[in-house]
């Protein structure tokens, strides 16, 4: 009897997983249909529908990056609280931390008063900035590396009762837990990954699993996590999605009212990441890379499994074995740290594993390559490395995930996409190789043009500033239509 009950429970869990998986694929199919169908509106079409009316930002259906906010001094200087579990230090930072650094430095330079509640670094000194209105409130992290909620909440309440209260509160993902955030109407949360998107990643990794690897039973737990998120996400007052895809999921799957979901695409520092031919040559000279090489491929980020490195490793290994000319004329530069670094070195002398690079060195790295590769299996957020490469004027080749094709590589004129299989990736790499530098340079120019329109730190900070003003006062929620 007990065995039958266990079997029944397992089947029910398995059924729930199948339903979740089918809904994920169903949604993705609809999204792709919408994105490439003539039935969907471009941003200009949306804005031209009511040319005599102002736009209500709270119900604007696309990314705020498409809008042009004035670069004049802000109409009001804000007192902003930020909760982020970790602050970036040198080259050791994930996408969430880099987003927090880029955005809030830009807001501080705009004159806003930033109070950052974050964990102190146990192994190194905390970075210092020559900006008086950037104030850090440090606390010891929990054993799992998160913020100690009771401590940071007390710090927050102290600052909130000093002089003037905070105009707006911002949390990077669950830096501030929903149990504390539920009564804060002036709070916005930026999601850098949600469980619903992660299901797709889990499916991909299961499909790529070799017979020797143990099967991971994570889909049932992931489905439970989605249910948990759907329940507690509404406790946050305003939600920022970092990709068009994530914004649609929050509205349609997580059932958050559209006036509380705002799409603001990630941005990177356009003063650091920009084309510089001499920087690229210096970087290549430093590593003794010959000019006779016909193509230089680049990768950057954490060299771990869910970033797709087993996939790209196998694809390169097979190509090197079957095509001597490709192996002799192509160089691969790998920037980052992780277990796959040593394995890349085993592929041959034309693979250069550079280790983690700071931003200034990363800019030189992008200028040295002909195309940037991102084989990520994580269908979450919007990867900063793609945006850095694009702003440096490089085309990109990346996994065909909804967040990427919906916001970044929106057409073949910017780069290449592939399904997360070795065969598809190999086909894309051969297409890159056959196209050659001249075609890649043209794609890179188109990519940079789009990057300047959407993915700069200036664009991102202007959108967040306007959102924070809108949260503070309703009059800032109206955007004057430029077509009036």
TrEMBL record:
* Residue ranges occupied by any Glycosyltransferase subfamily 4-like N-terminal domain in the UniProt entry: 94-271
Q: Which InterPro entries match?
A: Glyco_trans_4-like_N (IPR028098)
**Top-rank taxon, per record:** Eukaryota
Q: Which residues cross the membrane?
A: 12-33
Q: Which Pfam families match?
A: Glyco_trans_1_4 (PF13692), Glyco_transf_4 (PF13439)
Q: Which residues form a coiled coil?
A: none
Sorted UniProt keywords: Membrane, Transmembrane, Transmembrane helix
The reply to whether Electron transport figures as a keyword in the UniProt entry is: no
Q: Does the keyword Glycosyltransferase apply?
A: no
What protein name does the entry list?
Answer: D-inositol 3-phosphate glycosyltransferase 1
**In which organism is this protein found?**
Theobroma cacao
The gene name on file is LOC18590603
């Amino acid at each position: 009897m007990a065995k039958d009950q266990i079997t029944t429970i397992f089947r029910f869990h398995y059924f729930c997983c199948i339903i979740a998986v089918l809904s994920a694929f169903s949604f993705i199919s609809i999204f792709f249909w919408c994105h490439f169908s003539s039935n969907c509106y471009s941003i200009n079409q949306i804005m031209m529908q009511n040319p005599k009316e102002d736009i209500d930002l709270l119900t604007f259906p696309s990314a705020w990056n498409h809008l042009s906010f004035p670069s004049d001094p802000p109409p009001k200087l804000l007192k902003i609280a930020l909760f982020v579990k970790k602050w970036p230090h040198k080259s050791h930072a994930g996408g969430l931390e880099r987003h927090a650094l880029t955005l809030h430095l830009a807001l501080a330079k705009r004159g806003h008063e930033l109070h950052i509640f974050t964990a102190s670094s146990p192994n190194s000194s905390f970075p210092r900035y020559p900006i008086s209105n950037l104030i850090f409130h440090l606390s010891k992290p929990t054993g799992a590396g998160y913020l100690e909620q009771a401590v940071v909440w007390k710090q927050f309440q102290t600052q909130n009762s000093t002089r003037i209260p905070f105009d707006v509160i911002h949390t990077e993902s669950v830096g501030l837990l929903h149990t504390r955030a539920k009564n804060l109407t002036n709070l916005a949360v930026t999601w850098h990954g949600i469980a619903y998107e992660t299901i797709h990643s889990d499916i991909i990794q299961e499909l790529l699993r070799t017979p020797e690897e143990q099967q991971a039973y994570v889909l049932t737990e992931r489905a439970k996590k989605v249910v948990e998120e759907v329940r507690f996400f509404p406790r946050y007052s305003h939600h920022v999605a970092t990709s068009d895809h994530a914004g649609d999921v929050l509205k349609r799957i997580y059932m958050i009212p559209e006036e509380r979901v705002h799409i603001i695409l990630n941005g990177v520092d356009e003063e650091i990441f920009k084309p510089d031919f001499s920087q690229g040559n210096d970087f290549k000279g430093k590593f003794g890379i010959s000019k006779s090489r016909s193509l230089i491929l680049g990768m950057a980020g954490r060299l771990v499994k869910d970033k797709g490195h087993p996939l790209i490793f196998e694809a390169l290994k097979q190509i090197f074995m079957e095509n001597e000319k490709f192996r002799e004329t192509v160089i691969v530069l790998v920037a980052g740290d992780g277990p796959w670094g040593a394995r890349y070195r085993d592929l041959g002398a034309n693979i250069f594993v550079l280790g983690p690079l700071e931003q200034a060195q990363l800019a030189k790295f992008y200028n040295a390559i002909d195309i940037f590769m991102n084989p990520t299996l994580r269908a979450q957020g919007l990867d900063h490395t793609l945006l850095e490469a694009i702003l440096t004027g490089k085309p990109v080749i990346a996994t065909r995930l909804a967040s990427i094709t919906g916001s970044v590589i929106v057409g073949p004129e910017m780069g290449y996409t592939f399904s997360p299989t070795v065969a598809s990736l190999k086909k894309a790499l051969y297409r890159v190789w056959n196209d050659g530098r001249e075609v890649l340079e043209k794609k890179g120019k188109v990519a940079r043009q789009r990057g300047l329109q959407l993915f700069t730190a200036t664009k991102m900070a202007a959108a967040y500033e306007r959102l924070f003003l809108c949260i503070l006062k309703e009059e800032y929620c109206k955007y004057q239509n430029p077509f009036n």
